Amino acid sequence: MWYAAKQGTYLGSRRYNFTPKPKGIGIYDTHAEYLNATLNTTLGSCEGMPKCDHICLPRNNATRECACSLGFHRINDTHCVQKPLIGTDALLMVDYGQGKIFQLPINQSGSYNFSIVDIGTQANGYAMDIDMGTDTLYWFDRKRSTIFKTSLQSTSNSQAIVTNVTASTMAMDQLTGNLYFADSNTDFIKVYNPHKEITLTVMKVPKLRENISDISSMAHDARNGFLYWTDVNGGHGFGQLWRMRNDGSEKRAVLNQLNWPHGVTISYERSSLFYSESWSGRIIEYSMASLESMNPNHRSVYSHLGLSGWNGHYFNSMTVLGDWLYYYDRGLHYIQRYNLRTRRHATRFGPPKFFKGRDMTKYSKDYYNRYISTLRNPCGRNSTNECPEFCFNENNRRVCKCKDGSSFLTPTVCVDNSNHTSNPPVPLRGCPLDTDRRLEPCQNTVSFSWTSIEWVDDNTPTTRLRTTQPSQPSPVNLRNGTHEFVFTATDESNNTGICRFTVNVYIAWCDVSRFDNIAPANLVRTDLNCDGRPYFNVSCRSPHQNVTIAGAYSSPSMMVACMLHMWIPGNLRLIQCLSPPKVVTTSQEFYTPPVSSPTTPSQITIATTNTLDAKETTTMPPCKYFRSGY
Fold first, then answer.
1. What is the pLDDT of residues 290-307, one digit of tens each?
2. Which of 49, 82, 115 is the last residue of a domain?
3. 30, 65, 82 — which closes off a domain?
4. For residue 479, with 0-12 CB atoms within 10 Å meaning exposed, 13-18 middle and 19 or more buried, which class applies?
5. What distance in Å separates the CA atoms of residue 97 and residue 330, rounded to the nearest whole number?
6. Fewer Cβ in 10 A, N or C end of the chain?
């Protein structure tokens, strides 16, 4: 961010680097700038009329200026209007760092156009998918623990459909209109019927995997009637790709021993499934036919997607349309696309305005009409089918199910099970959001505190819930890194609700690890000195070499100090080791022969010593005087 500091009539600009990436911008004083009695401040005041819709920038001796928030543009000097949504052929992605849903046209120009779906100024979107058959957008608000739906043609009218949930990811059955979502509190997968406004749990994690299962992303195969999902499952080498029928039957792990699998998507144009490994920076493609075998073979591996010098890329959401693979790189904070046919280097797609991108999906009417609307649908897209509550398509036949808390009385009638549900407890005020804490230079820990989690259950009284919390009491001192806090509550039916959040502790500036990551192997540093201004010394491993900065400075050691929130010297990559200049020392012995003896020239030796090379010798006639060191 560039900012201007006004001092009288002098205007100087400076740059400030944010860590981590900022989420927005605000005005420190919305009514007046730097006050000076000789200046006309009334003209540029924000108190005048007409008022700005969003942000007012005051001015001295000039009319105030109105600015608009991200996704809006200004008209008529003061009014901010939202950019219209694209009719079709676009990408939709939710950025939970900003709480917004972005829409980007497939045919991007150099200006990187985008629109923001209007889900409200106080919303915090986290997961999302769209029903291309009805243009209905479904999204989860993490602040309100609620799933909403809205029409993409009129997004201002959102309707709450499922409450008291924590949906980590979503997948739409484009054939029937059912919505699948994973509840991160329990890692159960549930399905919502929008025609009858009911839910059903179709997958429960086994007891042995309750504490390690972590569903990252889901993809629905409407053509074959399967739901796929990736599960990190405890870490490196333990990840899995799972699938099951639409109704939850025939569940099995399709792929095992994966390295942090995250994104997953299906392409009917290529008849393939893609999934990403965030640990290895790879996206792997499997043919749909090969997934029917117990040992499927991958079709292609896209390693780092043509990126050179790969380091720290994090592919966590993606989709495929035509020959193009679109994926969000959380390490770069923008979407990239990769041509699956030419396999050239990946290029940036859209603006670099994202913070924490998550679910991504395509919105294409042509794709829907070619691959979805032509499929046979025994359930239909309304509430008039023969199933009393849920209808699932399995191999072009209808399978009926009852919602949670109900069971079949007859093949066509579902009855309530004595008003008893099997939902796990949920936090009364929601689970705390992930947060960041900053370490100052030379600070080893930062204090963090939390309040007790209050739980509620639909059947068990709060006083009889069995709860757990972190072993360390609040507050706690945290070191640099990511720390996870887990709270649980179990009801009398042994259903367990989980509240999990992380605290990321980072070094704000002058992080010595920055030097460690880029320093050549022949450089070493001392420990950080915290007496006064933080600093450390740099020297070469070889005692015969000096430290230099781009050849302009040479010394056995160099001080690197933290000043103005940055290391001085600023460009640490210029620090190198070089051999010092050669120093030549001439050693001579001189004498005057006796008068009585014949003056026969003698031979003397000049020893030339190089500090790095071996001694060289030569001969010269004797001289009368002796000097050394020159």
1. 999 888 888 888 876 544
2. 82
3. 82
4. exposed
5. 11
6. C
